[in-house]
Write a structure and sequence with these properties.
heterodimer, A: 654 residues, mainly alpha, Serine Threonine Protein Phosphatase 5, Tetratricopeptide repeat, 3 domains, two-stranded parallel sheet, 2 strands, 69% helix, 1% strand, disordered N terminus, B: 705 residues, alpha+beta, six-stranded mixed β-sheet, five-stranded mixed β-sheet, TPR-like_helical_dom_sf (chain A), FANCG (chain A), TPR_rpt (chain A)
Chain lengths: 654, 705
């Protein structure tokens, strides 16, 4: 971090110096012109025109860029682009003259930069190639290969060590930028050596131009619209980052790592440096070195506190490591960072014409850098808290989430990343959390909302189809179209939660009514196996967890169990036994209560068998993988296992 | 549906001429009318005081929307002293909250300000916080093909919709609360999803110029811009209609209108009886376009084509969908009726209709000439007082029953009238057939006995300083049947021996006289000009016939039908001949130059002829008639009884009183002599057979000097 910070400071200073020089040049030329009253030669006129354009742009750019509107910037850019083009055409209107080449190539460079800034890569590429060909015709070389790497290799070779060398290199830099922006990393790889030498030549001769300024007349120098050294440095690190991301996504983690680590010491803006750390961390994570990865992520964050992706990746590592507390901590940090107003870091002058985002457009990188939205993070946080015994905290997060969803504040929302679950799902989760936090009235209110909103949309008949092989795709499709089954399951779950609430409030009669409502709704669903008629799914039809069928069976089991328990409380033991026995298959946890009812009915041996069976039962899947509202209620009347065991012992003293 | 005409009252004139942008009219704060005509100015008209209170001058079109909202937002509610304030308010750049390129439309929803702009081949909805104008979010949709045929720059409709479950019931029974349309919850959920309903979110509806109707729920955050429907023509208007009057005041139907007249109604359809899925119904129809602007009230769509203002009754209930979709389309076409005209032209912008206390619908329109007009629609008898007077269910039941009874009565009356008119037609047809049989049956028995026949007399009359011969025909109905409306008496007059015309046909004149009923025993007298003096080519035959057109039987409606070729029955009556003798103008023998007197001619000639036939015992041996022929030549007819054995010696021997009559025709004109000779001959020939008289003619022609 410190190294990059140090590198950073002279960077901005240099930019200012450059601008000052540019201003001085233009003033000089003006005064000279006025004094001598001598008509300028065409050559000088062009230089003047170019420099005026450049200065105008820099003034515009140097003004308060942050407050300036994006649109206005764009309009300005379009105007400059067309002006540079006009000038370029004027210069190219006459046959190439050796004296003019430097000017010509600078104007081409300026026009090219403007085109690239507008993402007009094809136009820029043809502009560069044509201009280079034209210049090289003077040296008598040709014809040139149409293959870009070969073309540029021969071009560099033919200019040799002449004064033109530098100009052609500048154009090659632009070509490099185009390749980078269009993700042609393969081409860059082919020209690796040439580009490296270009980089070395251009970045080493830092003060060359200024040194040469006194020798040539100041007005003879055409100014570039973007500092070339700045450009080459930007290109260098962006290439490392893009290559690293590419290799990482191809699984060549160690290869990527070495490149990225060497890039992390390059002079570059903080954001880009933090990217190198971040990607290094990802490489290490892939290489199963989570602790080292965490270290890298920390460095990324230290370099650039805005690098939320590093936080997100750390959170994923903690999740992978099973460190729930750290994961929750990371989620909380991530959320608060995402909710911060995005601090606009002033970008160094001259760079925002070609921002790094323009050069880093590869799919693999953007997927590595993507972060879910603040709301989605908040949801994960809330759910994690509720599932891991931090219910009170979780409830608060859920309420924050619901408030955010109801507010018109669109802060921290972007379309990328996984979408939030549907609102009814969130309501039910929040309801379950509220019930866990012993706030049944609030839970009921939330469930009421879900029921009133959804109930009238329910179709009269629902057919649940057997899940296809391409499970994920159909699920995604179903989410797009609000399917009847999903809505029915929401309403069912809402009734179930309300039943739990009534149970919690020991209002057994209401509880029975609500559980019955839930059950009656659920039996509307017919299950359709391929090639069979739709039928009511039987209780023993267990299926893959997470499917609608699984949820349906779980809901049925829970509602029957709930009703059975309620009946038990009102001493309607017959009804209770019927319901509990039915529910056991879908919800084995009901076995304890079933035994209890049998015990009360005096069928003690059966009761003992039932209890033993329940204790020995190992669930097909962990309860945690189920939706939070499908889990066994914690708030109702409970049976104490030790008490039951005591009873068993009393019954059969050995 | 509508009775009477619209009352149009001009409130103000703004004197702008045609601008490239479609003008836009908005009612703000209840009483103020906001007017944007596509120029730099925004007018604010206070309908309360009937005067222009504020004129805002702004710098450019792009900024207009932002400026105006800024002004109104800053002002909050209409400032109390604004009416007393300056008549013109200059808005300078300090009012500018944000500048955006290519803004087409703008909407304020709660604390969010939305702009719709077109940028680089995509539509962009940008959300700004209305307090600090910070960009909250921006959603884009790739631009489709814009079908802009009129070339005017139109403001794409941008409206906000809420579910009525998400809003407290508004105090007024209007579907509009805080500028948002209020939809019934079920339709809202169907269209915009459960998430938007649960989040109680307002949904922004946007009709794009490429024909797509898009929506964006403002909540939950992160909702996407989605396409609801495509009209395939620029969307001109989006509104909500079908307000139920059960107090909640929510609309049950979304209405979208395209530029070329496509109307889309979006309603929640009730499923079939046994668990058929309920779904959203998109009813499409077409009205004659182009549609310049539109607005809806509870059950009607008002729209202007620029040349006329039309009203379309929207179907109240969505068609019940039982069968397959084929049946649905059938219902669809029946569902949209044809619009009726309100006869108000050149309306370019409309503000939503309001109802006056008297129940009249009032529209606020902006005409092409820049006039702000209040258009008051005539009260529709069907729904006077509807729906501002929500009545009790019982009262409504009675009202419904009464109106149902009224409907049945109307239908019964219409049916009765139809039966009656058919009976009438049958009765008339019967009469016609009777007459046909009567006239055709008599052809064999001889002309004279026809119960329906024509008599004619020729007479001279003086018309326009010119003497002309007029034939007066008298149609005599002595049959027991009535000649009713639809019958026509036709007379064709053609010279018996005229000079052949160019086409080889003798020139003839046809006259027809339609008449309205001729009862038994009645006569019909018609006059037709035969010839002017000196131009006649006598003798002339006048063929009379009766004709009946079947189209006349069916009435005017059928007769007006294009392509109808009405059948015609034509029955010949008798043929009359007008000869020289008829056309003779008799002058008294004493006063030879007496002007001709109509009536006298025939009488004198009749007397003359009769005297020769049977007046032999009277002792009158000589009778003379002086007259003038049609060309004005003097004519003298002399009849003399002679006992001349040489005339008929055989008869003379047998009979005791053999008589011969010598008729002498004297004229200076040879034509007159010949004509009269022929005329007298035709008259004598017939009695000669029966009366066995003898006639001798001596023709004396004297050359006229």
């Amino acid at each position: 971090m410190f190294t990059s910070g140090l590198l950073w400071l002279p960077y901005t200073k240099r930019g200012k110096v450059q601008t000052k020089i540019a201003r001085r040049f233009s003033q000089n030329s003006d005064s000279r012109c006025n004094k001598m009253h001598q008509p300028l030669s065409l050559f000088h006129k062009w230089i003047q025109e170019n420099n005026e354009l450049v200065n105008k742009w820099k003034e515009q750019e140097g003004g308060d860029t942050l407050t300036r509107d994006q649109n206005q910037n764009h309009t300005c850019l379009v105007w400059h682009s067309s002006e540079f083009h006009k000038l370029c055409r004027k210069i190219q209107g006459i046959a190439p003259i050796a004296d003019h080449t430097q000017l010509e190539l600078t104007v081409v460079y300026n026009a090219g930069v403007c085109l690239i800034a507008q993402s007009q890569f094809l136009e820029a590429e043809s502009l560069l190639t044509k201009a280079t060909e034209r210049i090289l015709q003077m040296t008598g070389d040709g014809p040139f290969a149409s293959d870009p790497p070969v073309f540029w290799k021969t071009a560099l070779k033919s200019v040799g060590n002449t004064a033109l060398n530098r100009c052609v290199m500048h154009l090659l830099c632009l070509q490099w930028a185009i390749w980078l922006a269009t993700c042609k990393l393969q081409t860059i790889q082919e020209l690796q050596n040439e580009l490296l030498s270009v980089f070395e030549t251009l970045s080493s001769g830092v003060w060359d131009e200024e040194g040469s300024a006194p020798r040539t007349k100041s007005s003879d120098i055409a100014l570039p619209v973007m500092d070339q050294r700045r450009l080459i440095e930007l290109l260098q690190i962006c290439t490392f980052i893009a290559q690293g991301a590419e290799r990482l996504s191809e699984g060549r983690s160690s290869e990527a790592l070495s490149g990225l680590q060497s890039a992390s010491s390059l002079p570059a803006p903080r954001t880009l440096i933090s990217y190198t750390h971040l990607l290094s961390g990802s490489c290490l994570a892939h290489m199963s070195r989570p602790q080292m990865a965490l270290q890298c992520y920390r460095m990324a964050l230290e370099t650039d506190s805005q690098c939320v992706c590093a936080l997100y990746q750390s959170m994923l590592i903690y999740r992978q490591l099973g460190n729930t507390q750290a994961e929750i901590q990371a989620l909380r940090l991530l959320h608060s960072t995402l909710m911060l107003p995005a601090a606009k870091e002033p970008s160094p002058a001259g760079v925002h014409l070609l921002p790094s985002s323009l050069l880093l457009q590869s799919q693999s990188l953007s997927s590595l850098l993507s972060v879910p939205s603040a709301l989605s993070v908040l949801h994960s946080l809330a759910l994690k808290c509720v599932l891991h015994e931090r219910v009170a905290e979780g409830v608060e997060y859920y309420l924050d989430l619901l408030a955010a969803l109801h507010s018109e504040d669109q802060h921290g929302v972007h379309a990328a990343g996984p979408p939030l679950p549907k609102l009814p799902e969130l309501y039910l989760q929040a309801g379950a959390a509220l019930l866990m936090a012993r706030r049944p009235a609030d839970c009921m209110a939330l469930c009421d909302e879900v029921i009133t909103t959804t109930l009238e949309l329910l179709p009269g008949k629902v057919v649940l189809k057997e899940p296809e092989e391409c499970e994920a795709e159909t699920r995604a499709l179903c989410e797009e179209v609000e399917d009847g089954v999903g809505m029915l399951l929401w309403v069912g779950a809402a009734y179930l939660l309300q039943g739990h609430c009534h149970t919690h409030l020991r209002d057994w009669k209401q509880a029975v009514t609500t559980y019955t409502r839930c059950f009656n709704l659920l039996v509307k669903v017919r299950f359709k196996k391929r090639g069979c008629q739709p039928q009511i799914p039987s209780a023993d039809m267990m299926s893959m967890q997470g499917t609608d069928l699984c949820i349906l069976q779980r809901l049925k089991g829970l509602s029957l169990a709930g009703r059975g328990i309620s009946f038990t409380q009102t001493d309607q033991l017959r009804e209770a036994l019927r319901d509990l026995q039915l529910s056991i298959q879908a919800f084995p946890g009901a076995g304890l209560w079933c035994g209890e009812v049998l015990w009360r009915l005096g069928r003690k041996q059966e009761a003992v068998a039932c209890w033993e069976r329940t204790w020995s039962f190992t669930p097909h899947f962990s309860e945690l993988s189920l939706a939070v509202y499908l889990q066994e209620p914690q708030s109702g009347p409970l049976l104490d296992s030790t008490e039951l065991r005591r009873r068993i012992e009393e019954l059969s003293p050995i | 549906v509508m009775e009477g005409r619209c009352a149009v009252e001009t409130w103000a004139e703004f004197g702008f001429s045609g601008t490239p942008c479609a003008p836009w009219l908005q009612v703000a704060f209840g009483t103020d009318v906001l007017l944007f005509a596509g120029t730099d100015e925004v007018f604010v008209f206070s309908s309360h005081e009937r005067k222009l209170t504020v004129t805002s001058i702004v710098s450019s079109y792009e900024c207009v929307f932002s400026y105006v909202t800024i002004h109104l937002c800053r002002a909050g509610s209409p400032p109390a002293d604004a009416h007393r304030g300056p008549a013109e308010l200059k808005l300078t750049s300090e009012f500018l909250a944000f500048a955006e390129e290519g803004v087409l439309s703008l909407l304020l929803v709660g604390s969010v300000l939305l702009t719709l702009s077109q940028r680089r081949s995509s539509w962009t909805l940008t959300l700004y916080g209305s307090s600090d104008y910070e960009v909250l979010r921006s959603v884009s949709l790739a631009s489709g093909v814009v079908h802009n045929e009129t070339g005017t720059r139109r403001r794409p409709p941008l409206t906000c919709v809420r579910s009525s479950a998400a809003t407290p019931p508004p105090s007024a029974s209007s579907s509009v609360s805080d500028g948002c349309l209020c939809l019934e919850p079920i339709l809202f959920k169907r269209l915009f999803g459960i998430d938007a309903a649960l989040a109680k979110s307002p949904v922004v509806l946007c009709g794009l110029p490429d024909g797509r109707l898009c929506f964006l729920p403002l909540r939950p955050p992160g909702s996407r811009l989605a396409v609801l429907h495509s009209l395939e023509q620029p969307v001109v208007f989006v509104g909500a209609s079908g307000v139920t009057d059960n107090g909640r005041g929510h609309a049950r139907c979304l209405v979208a209108v395209g530029e070329q007249g496509k109307v889309v109604l979006i309603q929640a359809e009730k499923g079939g009886a046994e668990g058929g899925a309920d779904r959203t119904g998109f009813t499409e129809g077409c009205v004659p376009g182009p549609v310049a602007c539109g607005c809806v009230d509870e059950k009607r769509l008002y729209y202007s084509t620029g040349s006329d203002l039309l009203v379309l009754d929207l179907p109240e209930e969505s068609p019940e969908r039982d069968g397959p979709s084929v049946e649905k389309s059938r219902v669809t076409h029946a569902a949209l009726q044809s619009p009726s005209s309100l006869n108000v032209c050149r309306v370019l912008a409309l503000a939503p209709p309001t109802r006056s206390t008297a129940g009249e619908v009032e529209l606020l329109g902006l005409s092409a000439r820049g006039q702000l007009q209040r258009i008051t629609l005539p009260v529709d008898r069907g729904d006077a007082g509807w729906p501002n007077a929500p009545s009790t269910p019982g009262g409504r039941g009675v009202r419904d029953l009464l109106s149902a009874i009224g409907d049945v009565c109307e239908r019964a009356a219409a049916l009765k009238a139809a039966v009656k008119s058919k009976n009438q037609i049958l009765r008339r047809l019967n009469q016609v057939l009777n007459i046909c049989f009567l006239l055709t049956a008599d052809t064999n028995t001889g002309e004279r006995d026809k119960p329906i026949g024509c008599r004619a007399t020729a007479s001279w009359s003086r018309l326009l300083e010119e003497d002309s011969l007029t034939l007066t025909c008298v149609l005599d109905n002595s049959s027991p049947y009535v000649l009713e409306r639809g019958w026509t008496l036709s007379v064709a007059a053609s010279p018996l021996s005229g000079p052949p015309a160019a086409g080889g046909q003798s020139p003839s004149a046809h006259f027809s006289f339609p008449f309205h009923g001729l009862h038994p025993g009645e006569t019909l007298e018609v006059s037709l000009p035969l010839a002017a003096a000196g131009q006649s080519s006598l003798p002339v035959t006048a063929s009379c016939s009766l004709s009946f057109s079947l189209a006349g039987l069916l009435g005017e409606e059928a007769a007006a039908l294009p392509g109808l070729q009405p059948g015609c029955v034509s029955l010949p009556l008798n043929t009359l001949t007008v000869d020289w003798l008829h056309a003779l103008r008799v002058t008294s023998p004493a006063h030879g130059k007496t002007p001709p007197q109509s009536g006298n001619t025939s009488d004198a000639i009749q007397a003359f002829l009769r005297s020769r036939r049977m007046g032999c015992d009277v002792g009158l041996s000589l009778s003379v008639v002086h007259g003038r022929d049609p060309s004005g030549h003097p004519v003298k007819l002399t009849a003399k009884e002679v006992k001349d054995r040489t005339l008929n010696p055989r008869r003379f021997e047998e009979e005791t009183t053999p008589t011969a009559v010598e008729v002498q025709v004297e004229s200076s004109s040879v034509a007159a002599v010949c004509g009269l000779h022929h005329a007298v001959l035709t008259r004598i020939q017939v009695p000669e057979v029966t009366e066995s008289g003898a006639l001798s003619f001596s023709m004396v022609s004297r050359e006229a000097r």
